[in-house]
Amino acid sequence: MGNYDVKQEVTDKYSLRGRVFHKLREDILSGKYEEHEELKEVAIGEELGVSRTPVREAFRQLELEGLIQIIPNKGAYVTGITEKDVKDIYMIRSLLEGLCARWATEHITPEQMDEMEENVYLAEFHAKKGHLEQLAELDNRFHDILYEACDSKMLEHQLKDFHQYVLRVRKKTLANANRGPKSNEEHKRIMEAIKARDADLAENLAHQHMINAYDNMVKNGLHEAYGNHTLVTSSE
Amino acid sequence: MGNYDVKQEVTDKYSLRGRVFHKLREDILSGKYEEHEELKEVAIGEELGVSRTPVREAFRQLELEGLIQIIPNKGAYVTGITEKDVKDIYMIRSLLEGLCARWATEHITPEQMDEMEENVYLAEFHAKKGHLEQLAELDNRFHDILYEACDSKMLEHQLKDFHQYVLRVRKKTLANANRGPKSNEEHKRIMEAIKARDADLAENLAHQHMINAYDNMVKNGLHEAYGNHTLVTSSE
DNA sequence: TGCAACATTTCTGCATCCATATTCTGAAAC
DNA sequence: GTTTCAGAATATGGATGCAGAAATGTTGCA
């Protein structure tokens, strides 16, 4: 629950603290650090060529994001995410994505509608061609458009947070060649519902879309994907 | 999204940073600082008798909680919450409280069930006696029990975050003598649904409970409650 | 009088230093 | 051989110093 805006991104880019924060988040999400691994201020500082100060501040932020856990006078540890946590997050997200789709139906701008349509048709093209990389990228973008279209900075921020969070376990999901196209078909139906101004339908579809994404992830082996940190390709 | 646990509370209590963090949050939520007011590191530090370091770290955390906004090389400003933000939060919460009630129905322990029942009947007593203070306290506690009973640390943390957040605007809501008892009646029905293991009903009731709370708040004048910082008494 | 360039002040960002809590190590005692 | 306790090593928590960016104030010129 925080307010993102342009200024914030400027900070992140040009301040040491911001860079450290993003670097660490990226590393944790990508699996560079093992779960429960201890992060030491000096070590990280030296690695990034900065002093302890920005590292410490970044730690506080990462703690609040739930990515690390700080034990007083002891150290910072990468938090573990259990399979139940993942499931819970998806269930929560499914509700919020539904709400987001409803609000998007009510508030989407013509420009956003256009971009969403374009996204879906472009994805359809890449799906046929088997371009998984682009498909994953478009999938991410679809959801971002949806978040922006709901016209609620509170909900948008919540969903973006979750999106970030689950990246840790959402590995090789869309790499599965079946899910990508199927996911896009669902996007298409959501898009059409929004275009038809059918908020109830859009909500239901978006809701189900997340549940399907989760089910697919479980079927494809949450166990393997979770823990051993393979290459990330994807989204939803 | 962060992981709360016992250790964390220890930190907050005994470290300077934790104390500064909580003091500032309390002050912002209670309205000691105006919206968009600038918070200066040295001033706060001197006021609390600490150096800039813990203040700065507290700032970073407050920023992620969305309570302040930090502009690089400029300063920290108390963020404004619009009426739309409040409405959005309540809508989001209503969904999540519903989900929470559903999960609580499935996972509540006998001890938690007992405490919930006790809470409701005790509140009934205070409602008859017109003890608004205790009623508000019990109202808060009811929700905390529900959060704990859902047996999901992700959802529990989300809801506690929101709960904190809306404290800023949820002033004198339950001070309204009508809402307190009415709220408790709703709690009672939620409790009974959980006891009867009717998850669907519990979800619906909890969902509606939040919507009612919001409607009541709006009827009682969100406008006045919001912005001029009157005494806080209450909950939901 | 208005404006622009410059100087001053103020505050943040980061580095460094000191204090303290925890952990590790090793020697002595049983 | 095991346990225990003391001291060293190490890491974090907090304070302070310094450089630089932004805001403010001032002066000089049109």
Written description of the protein model:
2 copies of one chain form a homodimer. The first copy, chain A, is elongated, with a radius of gyration of 19 Å. A 3-stranded antiparallel beta sheet of chain A has the order 1-3-2. Chain A has 2 domains: 73 residues, Arc Repressor Mutant, subunit A (Orthogonal Bundle); 143 residues, GntR ligand-binding domain-like (Four Helix Bundle (Hemerythrin (Met), subunit A)), CATH 1.20.120. The longest helix of chain A is centred in the middle third of the chain and has 25 residues. Helix content of chain A is 69%, strand content 4%. With 236 residues, the first copy, chain A, is mainly alpha-helical. In chain A, helix 2 crosses helix 4, helix 5 runs antiparallel to helix 8 and helix 9 runs antiparallel to helix 10. Chain A starts with 5 loop residues before the first helix and ends in an 11-residue tail after the last helix. At the A-B interface, helix 1, helix 4, strand 2, helix 5 and helix 8 of A face helix 1, helix 4, strand 2, helix 5 and helix 8 of B. The structure holds a DNA duplex (30 and 30 nucleotides).
Quick description:
By secondary structure, chain A is mostly helical.
Secondary-structure blueprint of this entry?
The structure is a homodimer of 236-residue chains.
Chain A: H1 6-14, H2 16-30, E1 38-39, H3 41-48, H4 52-64, E2 68-71, E3 75-78, H5 83-107, H6 110-129, H7 132-149, H8 153-166, H9 179-195, H10 199-219, H11 222-225
Antiparallel strand pairs in A: 1-3, 2-3
Helix pairs in contact in A: 1-2, 2-4, 3-4, 5-7, 5-8, 5-9, 5-10, 6-7, 6-9, 7-9, 9-10
The structure holds a DNA duplex (30 and 30 nucleotides).
